[in-house]
Amino acid sequence: MNTHQHNIAIIGGGCAGLSAAATLTERGYSVTLFEASSQLGGRARTVVVENKDLLQLLDNGQHILLGAYHATLSLLEKAGVKENEAFLRLPLQLNMVSSSAKSIFSLKSVNYLPAPFNMLVGFIFCKGLSFKDRITALTFMRHLQSSNYEIINDKPLVKFLKLHHQSAKLIQMLWEPLCLAALNTPIAKASSKIFLNVLRDSFSGNKKNSDFLIPKLDLSKIISHPLAHYIQARGGSIKLNHRIRTLVEVENGFNLETRQGTFNFSHVIVATSPARTDKLLEQLPKLKTSRDKTDHYQYQPIYTIYLQYPIETKLPQVMCGLSNTISQWVFDRGELCGEKGLLAVIVSAEGKHQKLTQDDLALKVAKELNQAFPQLPKPLWHKVIAEKRATFSCLPDLARPTNRTAQSNLYLAGDYTYASYPATIEGAVRSGIYCANLISNAS
Prior knowledge:
Blueprint: E1 7-11, H1 15-26, E2 30-34, E3 46-51, E4 54-59, E5 65-66, H2 70-78, H3 83-86, E6 87-90, E7 93-97, E8 103-108, H4 117-124, H5 131-146, H6 157-163, H7 168-183, H8 192-203, E9 212-215, H9 219-222, H10 224-233, E10 237-239, E11 246-250, E12 253-258, E13 261-265, E14 267-270, H11 274-280, E15 299-308, E16 319-322, E17 329-332, H12 333-337, E18 342-348, H13 358-372, E19 381-392, E20 410-412, H14 425-442
Helix pairs in contact: 1-10, 1-14, 2-14, 6-7
């Protein structure tokens, strides 16, 4: 391997760019990572917000990882992240609460049984479903296992579920919350094939694959800071506030022009958002009419509503789902992170909430929480963080670029390139590692 002949640029310091850089520096390559903003992490980052003259660190969104995210967990372990310090690991459990303060659905995997029996028995003893619904869900799960979670013709998930006799209640209580959490795409639009890929990784193999891993620390402390240290400790260079203005092919590779100067590299991995990637590739003739375009992509928002209550405030569980409300999931950050009295509410995908002002949305969410948990007092303050293009819409048969492009020695990384997965941290990490492997294997 002639690693000394490779001088690799990585454009974009999100999870895809960081995973590519970490993998390549570990293998002895010369790597420079360019990030346009002042911090790494992309959509998995910590932001500073001001509340009543106090500065507070909040994640730009409340993320959940799955036990099946092996590439992410392995990468973080290499970077020195201790799982038990960084995450709260919970065996799969769904607790759905109605606006009238009643638990209307509860599903919990049976932890002492191996997969898939832990989930099958969980379905048998779940609360809130009729006996018929439980048998229907079990029959459906057995069918998915026997077909290895594969389908030939992709279709919107709601159509696929109805085709397999899943009732309206099953869809509302089980499949729709899982779809929104995994794909951030409305169930009427979401790809069945991609959803089944996530189910397969979660519900087959080790029973820990279906565990929820909820961050206990700021995302920057879990992801970008440890990975940046890992990259730099192995000789990699990280340049913050370096926006790439142009990317041009030259005789000996590529020139990257920034405000600070022009840099030359033999290989380039573009790990920016799809829209930004399209702009960067404009000056590469081989990619003018190529499959690497993403202008047909649609996007979905994620809103995170932080509500600060008095410090003694607690929820019955660290994570609860809400039904028939704008609010979808609520997390007790006091139990998770020691941020006493702070609740984080997630509203995934498009919907009526987008028409509300941020203050009206926070007020609506606070009312919903008060109905679901009557013991809650009035919140002291709120902060809404809206990622309006948080993820691409994971639609059936969506044409997605591959990591290898028509341009020699130029690669694309990002969750949108990892064709078998939705827009997740795991998809981004896998794509970055795959790009690194393409460079290593060609050396």
